[in-house]
Amino acid sequence: MADLFDTLDPPRQPLAEAMRPQTIADVIGQKHLLGPGKPLALAFQSGKLHSMILWGPPGVGKTTLARLMARAFDAEFASLSAVFSGVKDIREAIARAEAERSRGRHTILFVDEVHRFNKAQQDAFLPYVEQGLVTLIGATTENPSFEVNSALLSRAAVYVLESLSQAELSELFERARHVACPDLGFEDDARDRLTGFADGDARRLLNLVEQVTTAATTAGLNPVTPAFIDEALSRNLRRFDKGGEAFYDQISALHKSIRGSDPDAALYWLCRMLDGGAEPLYMGRRLVRMAIEDIGLADPRALEICLNACATFERLGSPEGELALAQAAVFLACAAKSNAVYKAYNAARQFVKQDVSRQVPIHLRNAPTKLMKELGYGKAYRYAHDEPDGYAAGETYLPDGMERPDWYQPVGRGLEARIAEKLERLRALDREYHEGESRQSGGKFSAARGGGDGPQ
User: What gap in Å lies between CA 136 and CA 82, rounded to an integer?
Assistant: First the structure.
């Protein structure tokens, strides 16, 4: 049996691990950090190690850089994953660091996906970072401003890593082909197709090269064609974590494209998110929000169209429902814009939150009982439908002693331009009523009314 095992080939390393850079010079990308005179290059040259947070998308070299630092500074490399580790694992890592220090070796503690640790777990690092027992290198795909507590951030520099460019991916592809499949040819379009599938992720590209090499060898195909790559690889899902920052960045881009009246950009971001796996009905809900926040009463059809798009998707599913969402996005981008209602609502909500609980004026209260009538509930209330043009000029509807805040300020675009005209006519009638009252105390108000068209 021992002889049999001796004849077996040793397990083969994944290509991504076999090609992990051994020196800084081997790293592809991140020139803004590793180029001459750049922050991390200076850190390597100076020999002064410091705690840091490496923030960037998957597959851009966060783990690689941490390992290279341990090698460059002759430090022990300890690694934790926040997905699988807890406070117990942190304590064990600290105990090993203390043992290494007793032997004269410093420890770099690398924490992958540090944003997944809760506040208490992140706090557990603080005393050991402050004592200099470990140099902490955290890796995160999420904005550390939101996901890493401020105490830890104050003790670590934050470096932003970027997705690899198409040129950088092409360079990595040539290295990978030389290592994994030197005898396998690739048509130019096939190479571009493969690097496009990688979507800026070096690790994904290396895994794809392995998959295509195995598939092409099995099929006896040489050179590899774009059509073969499409057949060999599963559907390309553009990268974003549905709960992560990239997701919300793209939502933000969609919202701002619609607010900026750019239908092409709106369609691009909508399709990017649907292609990346965003839930279509979630996208519909966001479009509804945009219709209310950025179009409002300038074009009330926007809300109706968005609600209809959501209902269409619920009834028909994909792809017809997605087309309805696209139609809604284009309509929103092209519609007249107004955030007047949105601003008025926020102002009113803030006022009510900070204000006292004002009483409903007596004349606005219902009087369903005899006692309430005797107390004056509803007395002197003027029924608008019985007034000329359906408007009770001079009537007050706010609490006693509260000045008119004028929160709602319609813009001069779309339907709101007409709304603004009507409100100005009504305010003029109010002023005329009060002027008449002051001239003829107790006299009956009579004035020529303005037109009553528009929203009532």
Answer: 13
Q: Is the peptide bond before 36 cis (omega within 30 degrees of 0)?
A: no
190 Cβ contact partners less than 8 Å away, ≥ 6 residues apart: 223, 224, 225, 226, 228, 229
> Token pair of 2, please?
């021992």
Cite the beta strand spans of 221-339 per DSSP E: none
| End-to-end alpha carbon distance in the chain | 92
Strand partners, 53: 138, 158
Strands (E), 56-211: 76-81, 107-112, 134-140, 157-160
> What mean pLDDT do residues 46-59 have?
88
CA dist list (Å): 445 to 150, 387, 390, 435: 64, 11, 15, 10
Of the candidates 182, 411, 377, 389, which has an alpha carbon nearest to the alpha carbon of residue 296? 411
Confidence of residue 54 (pLDDT cuts 50, 70, 90): very high
Residues composing the chain: 456
User: Nearest-CA neighbor of 80 among 92, 65, 64?
Assistant: 92
Give, to the nearest 10 degrees, the angle between helix 263-275 and helix 320-334.
150
- Map tokens 């992140």 to a residue: 122
Given a cut of 80, is residue 273 above it in pLDDT? Answer: yes
Please tell me which of 178-187, 256-265, 355-364, 433-442 the model is most confident about, judged by mean pLDDT: 256-265
Which pLDDT does position 345 carry in this prediction?
A: 93
Residue with structure tokens 């670590």?
A: 156
Q: Say yes or no to pLDDT of 454 above 50.
A: no
**Residue partners of 29: CB distance under 8 A and separation at least 6:** 60, 61, 162, 164, 165, 168, 202
Whole-angstrom distance, CA of residue 52 vs CA of residue 127: 16
